[in-house]
Amino acid sequence: MNCTTCKAALPDLLLDPSAASVAAREHMTACPDCAAEFAELQATFALLDTWEAPEVSPYFDQKLAVRLREEQAAPPAGWLERMRSRLLFNTGRQFRPAMVGVMALLLIAGGGGIGISTLSHQPQHPQLSPAVNDLQILDRNEQALEQVDQILQDDSPDDNSDAPQS
Ligand SMILES: [Zn+2]
What digits encode the pLDDT tens for the residues 49-63? Predict the structure, then answer.
């Protein structure tokens, strides 16, 4: 018995010790690797035993049925919505291969559309040439200097004499 066959037998050793082979048990007592793996498996199962599935809310089935009826009764918005509702509520299996094909086509078309839209969006954000960029910076600097000049003029004593004294 080697480690691979012993590890394959570990679930048997844990869940049904009588079914596990004696060779696997003997290997495990001799091999610390397999013994450690067995201990980990034991710990995992012990943890799983403590887990409790959450309770389903009361009247879950009734609420679900009501919502399904509401969705079925509501007028579908468009062809995409109609297709979606047919896919959701139609239990006829004969349509499924066709629907899978249609959905695959939609996915391909959607992916292609996204690709095309990203391509067509790129020219909307053209790379500025360094010269244009520098000119824009100079323009902004000039605006800032003008603003500073205005502030300084406002603060000058000549303007203060015209301003109402308060
Ligand atoms: Zn081993």
Answer: 998 888 888 888 999
Look up residue 138 and give its two tokens.
């100079």
- How many Å lie between the centroid of ligand 1 and the Cα of residue 26? 10
- Identity of residue 157: P
Centre of ligand 1 to C-alpha 17, Å, is: 17
Q: What are 30's two structure tokens? A: 């001799």
Neighbours of ion ligand 1 (CB under 5 A): 3, 6, 31, 33-34
What is the rounded average pLDDT of the residues 29-41? Answer: 93
CA 3 / ligand 1 centre spacing (Å): 4
What tens digit of pLDDT does each residue of 140-161 get? 888 888 888 888 888 766 555 5
Distance 37 CA to ligand 1 centre (A): 9
pLDDT at 111 over 80: no
Ligand 1 centre from 32 Cα, in Å?
7
List the one residue out of 28, 48, 49 whose CA is nearest residue 38. 28
Return phi, psi of residue 66, to 5°: -60, -45
Name the residue with higher pLDDT: 87 or 49.
49
